[in-house]
TrEMBL record:
Keywords: Nucleus
GO annotation, biological process: positive regulation of transcription by RNA polymerase II
GO molecular function, one term: transcription cis-regulatory region binding
Compartments it resides in: Nucleus
InterPro entries for the chain: Fun_TF (IPR021858), Zn2Cys6_DnaBD (IPR001138)
Keyword Nucleus in annotation: yes
Primary location class: nucleus
Protein name: Uncharacterized protein
Coiled coil: none
GO CC list: nucleus
PANTHER family: TRANSCRIPTION FACTOR DOMAIN-CONTAINING PROTEIN, TRANSCRIPTIONAL ACTIVATOR PROTEIN UGA3
Domain of life: Eukaryota
Pfam family, one: Fungal_trans_2
Length: 438
C-alpha cells in the first residue's frame, strides 16, 4: 500500500496526502495526543468543521488575551465534542465561529455565531448541572472573544457576554453547582484578566447606570477575597528565579503578581478620585510602586530589537511598565516630563520592538499615550498596523482612535499642563461605545 500516516487504517482506506481525508487524519492524531484520556465524539463534526478546529488550534495571533490558553483549549474541545447536547453545541459553534472569523471573515462566521447564540440561549433555560454550567460559561466567553475580535459597531456586545459569564457563575454558586471550568486554574486566570481589563473600561468610559453585576469580580463569585480587600499583595516565590517565572505564578497574559497589582490600581484610581489621597490608600499605592520597580530591576534592559525573550516574560514586563506609568501619572503626581518617567516610556517602546512580543491593548494604550515625539508616534502606528495585518481583524481600530485622541489632547494643551485623570477620562469617553483593553 502507499505510504501514509496510517491513522486512517481503521477506515480500511489508503491515506491520500493530497485529499481532505489526510487533513482529517492529522486532526484526529492531534486531538488524541497525550496528556490524559480525552473523550471526543468526532462523528459530531464534518471535514470542513474539523479543518476549522485545526486552524484555530494552530493560529497564533500574538495577542494572548484574544485566545484561551492552549491547555484550556484542550478542555474546551472536550466540551465541544463531548455529546450532542445544546450546551456542547454552543461551545462547538463558538469555537467554529472564532476560527471562521479569522480564516474567512465575519460573513462566513456569522452563521456559526448565530447558532452559538441560539444554543446558548436554549441551554440557559435548562435545569443547571455542573457540566451544563461549565459549558454555558465557556460558550459565553467564546462569544465575548468574537465580539472583541470583530467589534459590533452598534454597541459594546462584548460587555454583555462578559457580564453573562458573571451571571452564570453567580447563579451556579447560589445553586451549589459550581462550574468545573471555574475550578480550573487556567480558566479562572484567563477570565480574571479579561474582567480586570473590563473594569478599566467600565470606570473610565463610565456608561450610564451600569447593572451591579458589572462590578462583581469572578473572585468574589467563587468566594475568594477581592484584591483590594486583601491585606497584602501576592508575594513572589523567592526560592525560584524571578526572571523565569514559575509555573504557579503564570497567568494567561502576565504574571499573577503583576495582575494583582493592576487590579489594585484599577479599584483604587478613578476619574472622580479626590486629588488628596487618604494616607492608607496612598501607602498601599506606594507599596505597589515599590513592587513594580523591583520587578523591573529583575529584568535586564532591552539592548537589541532582535533579542529573544519568552513571550510570557515579555508580556509581564510590558504590563509592569504600563502599570507603573499609570500609577505614577494617575495617582503619584508625575507630570510626565521627569527623566525617570521618560526612561520608563522609552523602555516600553523598546520592548515593543523585540522579537516574539505579545501585543495586548492595555499596555500599548498606556505607553502610547505618553509618546510625545513624532518618531515614537509613527512607531506606535506601525506596530498596530502590523498587528491588524497579522490578525486580519479590526480589533485595534478603536484603540488607534483613542491613542490618536490622546495625542491630539496633548498637542492642544501643550504648555498648559493638564490633569492626567481628566485627560484619560476625556479620551476614553470619545469612544462611540465602551472600549475593551484585553
Amino acid at each position: 500500500m502507499a505510504a501514509g500516516c496510517w491513522t486512517c487504517k481503521d477506515r480500511k482506506v489508503r491515506c491520500d496526502l493530497r485529499q481532505p481525508s489526510y487533513v482529517w487524519a492529522v486532526f484526529r492524531r492531534k486531538l488524541f495526543k497525550p496528556p490524559g484520556p480525552l473523550v471526543y465524539s468526532l462523528s459530531l463534526i464534518n471535514r470542513d468543521e474539523s479543518m476549522l478546529l485545526d486552524y484555530y488550534m494552530q493560529t497564533d495571533t500574538q495577542i494572548p488575551g484574544a485566545d484561551p490558553p492552549r491547555p484550556l483549549m484542550q478542555m474546551i474541545l472536550q466540551m465541544a465534542l463531548a455529546d450532542s447536547t445544546l450546551s456542547s453545541k454552543a461551545v462547538l459553534q463558538g469555537v467554529l465561529a472564532l476560527s471562521s472569523l479569522r480564516l474567512s471573515g465575519n460573513s462566513a462566521a456569522f452563521a456559526h455565531k448565530t447558532k452559538a447564540i441560539s444554543a446558548l440561549a436554549q441551554s440557559l433555560s435548562l435545569d443547571k448541572t455542573r457540566e451544563l454550567t461549565s459549558k454555558t460559561v465557556v460558550a459565553s466567553m467564546l462569544l465575548y472573544l468574537y465580539e472583541t475580535t470583530h467589534p459590533s459597531l452598534t454597541g459594546p456586545s462584548w460587555a454583555i457576554y462578559l457580564c453573562g459569564v458573571k451571571k452564570i457563575a453567580k447563579s451556579s454558586r447560589t445553586e451549589k453547582t459550581t462550574s468545573r471550568c471555574m475550578e480550573y486554574g487556567p480558566f479562572f486566570n484567563w477570565l480574571h484578566y479579561h474582567e480586570i481589563m473590563g473594569h478599566f473600561s467600565l470606570i473610565w468610559w463610565a456608561p450610564p447606570d451600569p447593572p451591579p453585576i458589572c462590578f462583581v469580580d469572578a473572585a468574589s463569585l467563587l468566594g475568594l477575597p477581592i484584591i483590594e480587600e486583601t491585606s497584602a499583595l501576592r508575594q513572589p516565590d523567592t526560592s525560584s528565579d524571578t526572571v523565569l517565572l514559575s509555573q504557579n505564578d503564570e497567568g494567561p497574559v502576565c504574571s499573577l503578581e503583576i495582575l494583582d497589582i493592576i487590579s489594585l490600581l484599577f479599584h483604587s484610581i478613578s476619574p472622580d478620585m479626590e486629588h488628596s489621597i487618604a494616607s492608607k490608600k496612598r501607602q498601599r499605592l506606594l507599596e505597589a510602586e515599590n513592587t513594580l520597580r523591583k520587578h523591573l530591576l529583575e529584568y535586564p534592559s532591552t539592548k537589541s530589537t532582535t533579542e529573544y525573550r519568552p513571550r510570557l516574560n515579555t508580556s509581564t514586563l510590558l504590563h509592569t511598565i504600563a502599570a507603573l506609568i499609570f500609577l505614577n501619572r494617575a495617582a503619584l503626581d508625575y507630570s510626565g516630563e521627569e527623566a525617570a518617567h521618560e526612561v520608563l516610556v522609552k523602555r516600553g517602546l523598546d520592548i515593543l520592538k523585540t522579537v516574539g512580543v505579545s501585543y495586548t491593548p492595555w499596555p500599548i494604550f498606556i505607553i502610547a499615550c505618553e509618546a510625545h515625539r513624532d518618531s515614537a508616534r509613527l512607531f506606535i502606528l506601525d506596530v498596530m498596523a502590523r498587528i491588524e495585518e497579522h490578525t486580519g481583524s479590526r480589533r485595534l481600530t478603536l484603540l488607534r482612535h483613542l491613542i490618536e485622541a490622546a495625542w491630539n489632547y496633548q498637542d492642544l494643551n501643550q504648555g498648559r499642563g493638564s490633569d492626567y485623570r481628566a485627560m484619560l477620562h476625556a479620551i476614553v469617553r470619545t469612544a462611540p461605545y465602551m472600549p475593551f483593553f484585553a
